Amino acid sequence: MFVCPMATPSDTSGLQQLANSGKIKPDTLVALAGKTEGTGQHDDWGRVWADVVLREWTAKFLGIPVSEVAKQVIFVLSGGCPGVITPHIAVVTREWVEVPDGAGDAGGDKRLVVGRAGSDPMAPEEVGRMGQIRKVAEATHRAMADAGLTDPKDVHLVMVKVPGLTTASIRDAESRGKTVVSHDLTFGAEGAGVYANDAAALGVAMALGELPESALSDDVVRRDWNLYSEVAMTSSGGEKRHGEVLVFGNSSASRSSLRIGHAVTKDFIDAEGVRNALRSAGLRFTGGLPDETDLSRLVHVFAKSVIPGSDQVRGQRITLLDDVDAYQIGKALGGMLVASVTGRTTNYVSGGERNSHQGPPGGNIMAAVVRTET
Questions:
Q1: Is 235 a catalytic residue?
Q2: How far, in Å, CA of 30 to CA of 2, rounded?
Q3: Among this protein's residues, is 217 annotated catalytic?
Q4: How remote is the C-alpha of 304 from its chain's centroid?
Q5: How far apart are CA 276 and CA 162, in angstroms?
Q6: Which domains does the chain have, with CATH numbers?
Q7: Dihedral in degrees, nearest 10, Cα atoms 349, 353, 355, 360
Q8: Per DSSP, what are the bridge partners of residue 347?
């Protein structure tokens, strides 16, 4: 995993440097996941611009048509970098290595593995509903298999990008006599964007056995907050037509020098939750902040930053729910929380919506990737 800061949404210089140095190769590139500057809303042209440019660069790098890129490389781009979030791309590679006969596994020391899968196309009438949930669940199963993972407990992060709704896709559905989950194209409390994000999260929960399919229906999406995943980080965009799933976990069959772990924060000011994610990944500090030796092993942090449905944090009233810029402030708060622990700003922080099935009520998911000590 290599983290490349971006000067603009079209900046591919970091990718090109990795390619020129041989650190990434056409047959090892698995995914590009990152933060792009812009509004983060459905009309975030910064994210769309970055997606187009990155796909064009990847097609040239792989020597294939742009239309074929999605079959080989997963793209998960989250728009909006308010506050101290640096626009960046995390480049994920995977290489299969031959193990000598009799070498067995890595002695029980589990290391990072990654799996990828694309879903079947998602019709606009499926967005935010069981159709989207089932297709994300099916793609998550295939991504786990691609990573060689069979035990859901070994999965520490599932990143998903799914289609949202647009004026054109709504018109298409209604021309065929179908309904859509919302005509609000924002990421507000009843917006199509958050319905898409949360259906995707419930699809991950269903795939990993966090929730049984019998507990899920169209009616529970953004209604029953007791239903959630502790490892799903999802986002949506009108530029998508199918879902893209990226599964990160640990396996004793891996020879990677990296390891992933995760934790859940209890609220917006829970720095201990961030530290717990670092410890889960393998950093050994015991209280306070990790020192520079610890942080030198930190590769990347992935985080959600969802606005709680309550106007209380630890018994004190906050006014975030009434703030006109709450969507951006929510992301900025998450970015600052992670940066206060890690001392870096190239953190993947997605969120800004109010309430979510990504993590328990009031809490947010944190995942960290670190280099192992040996």
A1: yes
A2: 12
A3: no
A4: 8
A5: 29
A6: 2-93 (3.30.1330.170), 111-249 (3.30.1330.180), 258-371 (3.30.1330.160)
A7: -10
A8: none
Q: Which of 135, 161, 304, 331 is catalytic?
A: 161
Each residue's pLDDT, cut to its tens digit, for the chain (374 residues) gives: 999 999 999 999 999 999 999 999 999 999 999 999 998 777 788 888 999 999 999 999 999 999 999 889 999 888 999 999 999 999 999 998 887 765 555 556 899 999 999 999 999 999 999 999 999 999 999 999 999 999 999 999 999 999 999 999 999 999 999 999 999 887 777 889 899 999 999 999 999 999 999 999 999 999 999 999 999 999 887 777 889 999 999 999 999 999 999 999 999 999 999 999 999 999 988 878 899 999 999 999 999 999 988 899 999 999 988 887 888 999 999 999 999 999 999 999 998 888 999 999 999 999 999 999 86
Q: List the one residue out of 240, 245, 170 whose CA is nearest residue 201.
A: 245
CA distances from 199 to 38, 62, 127, 181, 234 (A): 24, 32, 8, 11, 9
Catalytic residue among 78, 235, 254, 350: 235
Cα-trace Rg, the chain: 19
Residue recorded with tokens 């810029």: 325
Largest Cα span, the chain:
63
Residues in the chain: 374
Tell me how far apart the alpha carbons of residues 207 and 348 are, in angstroms, rounded to a whole number.
24
